[in-house]
Write a structure and sequence with these properties.
Helix 4 (56-79) packs antiparallel against helix 5. The chain has helices at residues 8-28, 35-42, 46-52, 56-79, 89-105, 108-114, 123-143, 153-173, 181-198. With 203 residues, the chain is an all-alpha fold.
């Protein structure tokens, strides 16, 4: 982004442009959307658009950031209903992965972006989501440290979270996946539980 909005009116303008970016790429496809289309959808002149964004790529990055924050808010709300004392690792893994799949699949903007995942940089979004998931996992294992004494927990969580996120992203970007969501969730949960249990310290 060329210039970060400071005043309320400027922030509202940027929000309108980001919202218009999502609408245009859904209507026209990512490759055919232009800054002129986005400005027209937002109801602003092209000069106003270029005041904040240098090109379409910067607008797509801002849209990705917004989608990431929206997903995080939904994940936080979803996780707030977890009873961390009662749920097993498998329960939490399956519920979280399935919720993420269903939430993203229901979002037409994300699904259009996912068709071009190899062209887009997902590192920033994945790093933000990873940090949130690490916090959730850390909270869970602090409450269950006697049940799951895992010495190298941070290493195992790093590998598992990044592996699971990459798998989910690949699964969603396939137009006609041969694997059903619940099948994928079950296998990912097996992997997560298996790797964590294998790291448990023998007492």
């Amino acid at each position: 982004m060329r210039r970060k909005p400071q005043q309320l009116r400027s922030r509202e303008m940027v929000d309108k442009l980001i919202d218009a970016t999502g609408k245009v790429i859904v209507a026209r496809g990512l490759e055919y959307a232009t800054t002129n289309h986005i400005a027209e959808e937002a109801g602003v002149n092209i000069a106003s658009l270029y005041h904040y964004f240098g090109n379409k790529e910067e607008m797509i990055e801002a849209l990705q950031d917004q989608l990431t924050q929206d997903l995080l808010q939904m994940l936080v709300q979803h996780a707030s209903g977890f009873d961390l004392q009662a749920l097993s690792m498998r329960d939490i893994a399956e519920a979280s992965i399935l919720f993420t799949l269903e939430t993203l699949r229901s979002n037409p903007v994300f699904m259009e972006l996912s068709r071009h995942w190899s062209r887009l940089s997902l590192q920033r979004s994945m790093a933000v989501i990873e940090q949130h998931l690490l916090q959730l996992c850390t909270t869970y294992f602090r409450q269950h440290f006697r049940t799951y004494p895992i010495e190298d927990l941070h290493i195992r969580l790093y590998v598992l979270l990044n592996g699971a996120m990459a798998t989910v992203a690949r699964h969603l970007c396939e137009g006609s996946p041969v694997i059903r969501d619940r099948e994928l969730v079950a296998v990912l949960a097996d992997m997560i539980v298996g790797v964590l249990e294998k790291g448990m310290i023998e007492g």
